[in-house]
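Hi R.,

Here's the input for the zinc ion complex you asked about:
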Amino acid sequence: MPEVPDLVPWAAGLAQALVGRTVERARVGDPIMLRQMVAEPFPTTLLGRTLTSVGRHGHFLRFGFSGDLALVINAMLAGRYILGRRELHEKAGRDPKAMGLVLEFEDGQTLTYVDEKRMGKIYVASPAEERTIPVYAALGVDVLDERAFTREAFEKLARSRRDQVRAFLMDKSALASIGNAYADEILFAARLHPKTMVRTLTPEDRGRLFEAIGHVLRGAIEEIEKRQTPPGVKVRDFLSVRGRDGKPCLVCGTTIRAVRVNDGDACFCPHCQPATRKLFVDFGKLPSAVATREAPAAADDAKSPRPRPRRSASPRRPPSGS
Ligand SMILES: [Zn+2]
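And here is the predicted structure with zinc ion in place:
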């Protein structure tokens, strides 16, 4: 799925190529992806309108048109954008239904939203309907907005969480928007195990996590911009842990592991991101006699090939009842 570091350069590239152009033709490959929220039918509603802006909102791209109409696209798992005609025809030969949306502009320039999985959503909305688009209308604080996403704002969000840190990072109504790949990268940079409960994070942990969000995302945007790939091409070859399970950690050499967290897989380094001892005992795997808070930290989902070092930097909480 395209994530914020992909979408920032894509939005800039698409804006540069297309803003100021007028739509001459528009069509959808598979209507299942189209969410027509205005009365005027598609494609009539888009024809003759001039593209005025391309922007990223969380993990959505928003295309603004003259006359207060917007196309808002959630690319979900596999959506991407192709600029230009040649690629369009190549794609069309393969699977016309995968072409979610094709916009042809008056000068011959073409934008295609391609989605082989057809899971993406394309909303056509005026300002009133735009405020009702699912998820989009309820996005949390934008993690790249330095004025809104402050340490204080982050603390306030973290305070109420009763879930695991990776689930918190990926909750779009809290933080807009972090996906699977960058959740892993952020947790690696913050040296936090993906299953750590948010409420057990120390102020120091939360500080590292907050810093890692901005640092990892901005670093990735910078790296992707350097490659100068066309909008729509995902660049992931520089990531530290995501997609590298089974390979050695770039920092310590320990094998990167994948572990199930909620409905996704998290990649992490068991050495750099150690489980905090008492949190990760799987009571189901222990004989009842030792299933106490004093049980050894032997039952994490991912078996570390090395002894798991303790985090000396974090003060340990006293056991309950003392
Ligand atoms: Zn490591």
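One thing worth noting: The first strand starts at residue 23 and ends at 28.

Cheers,
M.
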